[in-house]
Amino acid sequence: MSAKSLWSSARRSGKDGASPADKRTPFEHDYDRLLFSTPVRRLADKTQVFPLDRNDSVRTRLTHSHEVSNLARSLGNRLIRTKADCFSDVKSENDAAPVILAAVGLAHDLGNPPFGHQGEIAIRTWFEEHVEEIEQSAVGINSREAMPVTKAQARDFQMFEGNAQTLRLLTRLQSVVGLYGLDLTAATLAALMKYTVPSSKTDKGRAATKKFGFFASEEDVVAWIREKTGLEEGQRHPLTWLMEACDDTAYSVLDVEDAIKKGLASPEDLRAVLSSKFGKRPEAKLLLKRLREDFQKANLDSDEPTRIEEIKTSYLRTRLVETILTGAASEFLATKRAIFGYRRSNPLLECDSFASSLVRVLKKFARDHAYTHPSVLKVELQGALAIQQLMNLMWEAITRRDKFDDLSSRRLGPRASYVYSLISSSYRWHFEQASSASVLSIRYREMQLLTDMVSGMTDRFAVELHDELQQALDG
């Protein structure tokens, strides 16, 4: 690999970590490090659509991530088999693409807090309501570290973003190699960055800048990624477009499948919607014809209604995923020059194509039958309230200490001491070991410890911890 390459295998530690007998590529190492990491396992108890659901066939964030990983690897291989030098003229770089895609598909949601997007909103709301109070609380403290949090830094929390937390988690908090997190390659980290600007430079007009992709604390990491890959601010790695398309495919098709499994809709409901929306479009005729034939076969295969519905749902998933990924692959190849020239601005599945139209219809179907169902909204509300109340208690525990400059000093009062002891020892270590020469104020680091802890919780842990603390306080 060249010194500056989109496929850079450089690691921040400067080490490759492989023994002489190990024949894995650096990118296979990345995937394996991710697969066996604790944050990936935690996804098993994080919401995809239905919070705290006890139905094993309904997806969690872990099964969603494994499916995105599989779809992304498959899409990478499809493109290479369509055009042998699809990604690079260098064979080793071209062959690396499916592996990198599998890795970033697995990792893309690791920074998401409990209760999914509602968890993100709960965190943002808490900071919106408390940031002014936090800034004022540092006034009068006799310390060179009591710098105010700038407006740009405050936006990191008022606009809290799970994608930025993912980068922080993998490059800082989940320590495997010193202070480098999992010490993933520059190419994998670059492909993982769906958003490529800080919170002060977002621009909704472009996919790569619609949200922010890193906190002020990881600016040095992003500078290193850019140095190694040659990417500049606002530029996406070409593989990121494919990972995003696979995530959109999973959301649009597989969330609908879960709604059907929960009994909130039926395969016939969805087929009727598709026929109504696309019945006159020539490119939809083959899909609708195949679904009609598939459903007829399902009716002949069994007399048991539940099994018939399962078979129809399986046919739906297979046909829809294939149609959408075929569209994404075609769009990537048709606009490859713009993608590698960093001129593309909209996602692969947000264009004038049948696949894009299909995704929009499926997402609306999921909103109508799953995301806004009262059973989902009720648990999301309970989760959001639990998160905000936990943040109140943890903020007190983080900030009420004997010495402002000494982040590890004794907490003041039994409640603050107890709650602080519940915060991850790894996260506390990163917080307490922060250098006094840091350009980030203590207040910023306190806010970040709070988001580190909350975003690392699983749904069930957040609810159970909230209930435990409430009982302790009430008792």
Describe the structure.
With 475 residues, the chain is mainly alpha-helical. Among the domains are: 157 residues, Hypothetical protein af1432 (Orthogonal Bundle), CATH 1.10.3210.10; 135 residues, no CATH class. Helices cover 62% and strands 0% of the residues. The relative contact order is 0.13. The model has no long low-confidence stretch (mean pLDDT 88).
Record keyword descriptors for this entry.
475 residues; mainly alpha; Hypothetical protein af1432; 20 helices
What is the number of helices? 20
Average the pLDDT over all residues and give the rounded result.
Answer: 88
Q: Work out the number of β strands.
A: 0
CATH class of one domain: Mainly Alpha
Radius of gyration computed on alpha carbons:
24 Å
Classify the beta-strand content into a percent band. under 5%
End-to-end separation in angstroms reads: 62 Å
- Can you tell me the residue ranges where pLDDT is under 50 for at least 5 consecutive residues? none
| The named CATH superfamily of one domain | Hypothetical protein af1432
Going by helix content, strand content and strand pairing, the class is: mainly alpha
Architecture per CATH nomenclature, i.e. the level-2 architecture of one domain: Orthogonal Bundle
Largest sheet: none
Helix/strand order, N-terminal first: HHHHHHHHHHHHHHHHHHHH
Q: Categorize the overall geometry.
A: globular
At the fold tier of CATH, the topology name of one domain is Hypothetical protein af1432
Helix content: 55-70%
